[in-house]
Structures are given as C-alpha cells and as structure tokens.
C-alpha cells in the first residue's frame, strides 16, 4: 500500500442520490457489507488537463462496476449514465481540478443473514486528492516488491473479475506482509504458481524486447490501466503477449513494472532481492506516454479522456 498519508477530506460525498457533507456519509454497524465484505467498488482518477478536468476512462470504470455488481447478484439502483453524472456532480461540488474518485456499492442495513437477499443496495461516491500511490520516488526510480506467501484467490473461490470489497482481505494480507518485511508492494501468485497481480496493480515484464503480462485466466483483475498500457505499447510498435508467467520470469526480466489507476505506471527495480535495475527504456517510454495521455498532453490517445458535460458543450 506504500507511503500514503491520512486521507484529505473534501466537502461532499454523493450518497444514494444526494450530495451530503463529508461527515454525514455514514452507515449503520449492521450493514451487510461491513460484516461480509459484500460490496463492489472502483478506483478512478480525474486529472487536470489543458481543457479542464478530465476523468480517465470514466465509462469503462462504471461498466466494470456494473459487471462486478452482476457477479455478486447485486442490482445496482443506478445506471452507468446516472453514476457518471453523479460523479461529475461530485467533482463539481468538491471543486478539485485533480482527484481520486471512489465509487462503492454495498449490501446495506436490512437482514444480517449471510445471503444478501433482504438487504438494500447503497451506493456512494467519494473524491479526494490522492498523490501517486507508490510514491513519487517509486514512480521515478522504481520500487522493491516481494512475492507474497498468500495466494491470489482463484476463479472458483470468488470471481476475481469482480472488484469486490471482500477480495481485498487477500490484497491487504499480501501487502502487509511485504511492508512488514521492508518491501513496498506484494506480488501474488495463483494456486498453480503463476504470476497474478500486485495488491492493487497488474504486472508487466519486458524480456528481449517483448512485453509480457499475465493472461486474464491467472486470477487477475482486468485492469483498465493494463488495457491502456497494452494498447499504448502496441501503438508504439511493441509486441505484447498475454501468457502465464512464473516467478523466475520476474527475476530474470530486463524490466518489470506494475500499473493501476492509483499506481499509474510504476517501475519495479527489485523482486525478492533480485535486482532488475533502474527503470528501463520500455518502462520509461510507456510511463511517459501514459502520463502524457492522462494529463491531456498528447492527443494520440485522447479518446480515453472524458470531460464534464458542460465543458463538452463549450468545446
Ligand atoms: N489488480 C488489482 C488486484 C487491483 O486492485 C487493481 C486496482 N483496481 C488493479 C489490478 C489495476 O486495475 P485498474 O488499472 O483498473 O486500476
């Protein structure tokens, strides 16, 4: 989880259709999601660009939230379009040109049987300023990662394609273990020993000029940054191969990096005390292209930036 400080409070939180004061966005202790981790969430970033605030791949994030809900048999009371517009209302209300956005939907206060039938679905969206997840220093010089002793949950344990809250006990244990041992991030393996993902990032490996990343079947979250990186890399002329990887592929790689909405593109300079080296040329090129894209400094992948509805009509 890296080196983040206390959360910076903002003015409003969108909750069940209304903008409420930050302090008033509370739930009852009998909330189903609190007891059983029965929620789904997203992590989204809004960036300041020359054309105003833009949210990176906003539609895809809410579409993934809808898919996550479906996998938990949860009926979201709002459509993707309604959630997108709620997100813009919140960003407008909090007045930050750049922020992290965290939508969450969870089974609320109703019955406390494990079966979620009988529990209402609550939906909230928070936004607050959040710097680079693995630190500025990590973004520039790379981080040290450790393979976790905790396996990534398998596809028949909990649907890993869902960004479900309960799954994050798996990530939490892995990153705590890594942090306590002095590493910045954990890398989880599947039950079969293949590389899955970091506690909150997907993994990429560069060897002999080819870029590899675990296949979706390796219990990974289908990351939106992963998809972005694969498309950017291909457009820049690189070969990208999705396949099962084992831990020695990391130890012997020319370059390793991780990516996610929060972590953006963060180089890995060491895995399990095997030096990989300072950020290599492919990592540096992709990181620069990614950061230029999200900040609106290049038009090449501009289709992924979504602007506030008002800004769109002015443009
Ligand atoms: N894997 C896991 C386990 C994650 O939690 C995340 C963060 N959502 C990612 C990968 C990266 O996903 P994204 O690029 O969509 O943020």
Question: How does this structure look, described?
Answer:
It is built from 9 helices and 17 strands. It is an alpha+beta fold and 315 residues long. Strand 4 and strand 5 form a beta hairpin. The radius of gyration is 19 Å and the shape is globular.
Summarize the structure.
With 315 residues, the chain is α+β, with helices and mostly antiparallel strands. Helices cover 29% and strands 27% of the residues.
Q: What structural keywords apply?
A:
315 residues; D-amino Acid Aminotransferase, Chain A, domain 1; D-amino Acid Aminotransferase, Chain A, domain 2; 9-stranded mixed β-sheet; 8-stranded antiparallel β-sheet; 9 helices; 29% helix; globular
Overall CATH class of the largest domain: Alpha Beta
Which of globular, elongated, flat, extended, rod-shaped describes the shape? globular
Name given to the CATH architecture of the largest domain: Alpha-Beta Barrel
Span from first to last CA? Answer: 38 Å
Number of strands: 17
Bound molecules: 4'-deoxy-4'-aminopyridoxal-5'-phosphate
CATH topology of the largest domain: D-amino Acid Aminotransferase, Chain A, domain 2
Calculate the mean pLDDT score and round it.
95
Estimate what percentage of residues fall within beta strands: 25-35%
- The percent range for helix content is 25-40%
Give the structural class: alpha+beta
Task: Output the number of helix runs.
Answer: 9
Question: How do the helices and strands follow one another from N- to C-terminus?
Answer: EEHEEEHHEEHEHEEEEHEHEEEHEH
